[in-house]
Amino acid sequence: MKKFLSAVLAAALTLSLAACGATASSSQAASSEAASSEAASADETAAFTGDGYDADVDYAALAGTTIKVAASPVPHAEILKVAKDILAKADITLEITEFTDYVQPNTVTESGEVDANYFQHGPYLESFNEENGTHLVSVAAVHYEPFGLYPGKSKSLEDLADGAKIAVPNDTTNEARALQLLAAQGIITLKEGAGLTATKNDVVDNPHNVEIIEMEAAQLPRTLADVDYAIINGNYAQEAGFSVGTDALAVEDATSEAAQTYANLLVVKEGNEDSPAIKALAAALTSQAVKDYINENYDGAVVPIF
Questions:
Q1: How high is the pLDDT of residue 144?
Q2: Distance (Å, rounded) from C-alpha 220 to C-alpha 101?
Q3: What is the DSSP string of the chain?
Q4: Which value, in Å, is the radius of gyration of the alpha carbons in the chain?
């Protein structure tokens, strides 16, 4: 009987040890597999190249990073989502917070609550810094929203008659852009150096004696029935159902002073412009994928400038 019990105990001990050995072996195999998977993932991240890639950025070191950006909903947040997909390939998360005002995106960037913002053009950024004592700088110019010259009673520029009435925005900045667009079409000539502070007083040649009618920008789409042409801001044209791409007779060129000056910018707090994360974001936001998205989705109302 003692021999029988000893045999049973020995068998049980053998099975127990065998089970422990199997468990340890399985655990080691699982750990090895997980390590291999992590290594493969790290290799993929380190090897991230292609559209939206910046050769000066160590993408492997940024893996797992979150970049926070403040943006206006349309078109800025929409465009950022394309950059988000690019950054995800390098295991970088882009967190987009939408704002409908033009103050908070700058204040949260200054305070460090977010890493960057994308909603404003250069002149607004400059005036905001001056008025608020902030230290914000541009990292990249991404797009501009062009002014368009739309037909009213006259349906083409070939029909431009002497004394034609052309409505333009009455605020200083937008009126200057409108006058520059008229000058680019040869309808008027502006005084040399008038630039983006031009007013009607800077018109030095008006061969067709066109009458330039100043009015509030928001009213311009509704006045087309009463004038020959109107130059309308991109946002008001869109709201009125006009297509910059198909309805406008002329639009601001991407190389124009206005387009370059009023390009919408990726902005950070001074001192952060050369950080690897911001460089990675700027590269993604000025990628071919973003350019294609803009060209395919906004019908000329938003134009890439990179």
A1: 94
A2: 23
A3: -HHHHHHHHHHHHHHHHHHHHHHHHHHHHHHHHHHHHHHHHHHHHHT--STT--TTS-HHHHTT-EEEEEE-IIIIIHHHHHHHHHHHTTT-EEEEEE-SSSSHHHHHHHHTSSSEEEEEEHHHHHHHHHHH---EEEEEEEEE---EEEESSS-SGGG--TT-EEEEE-SHHHHHHHHHHHHHTTS-EEPTT-GGG--GGGEEE-TT-PEEEEE-GGGGGGGGGGSSEEEE-HHHHHHTT--TTTT-SEE--TTSHHHHHT-EEEEEETT-TT-HHHHHHHHHHTSHHHHHHHHHHSTTSSEE--
A4: 30
pLDDT for the residue numbered 235? 79
pTM over 0.85: no
First-to-last alpha carbon distance for the chain, in angstroms, is 91
Q: How far apart are CA 249 and CA 82, in angstroms?
A: 31
- 104, pLDDT greater than 50: yes
Q: Of the candidates 156, 140, 152, which has an alpha carbon nearest to the alpha carbon of residue 287? A: 140
Q: How confident is the model at residue 17 (pLDDT cuts 50, 70, 90)?
A: very low
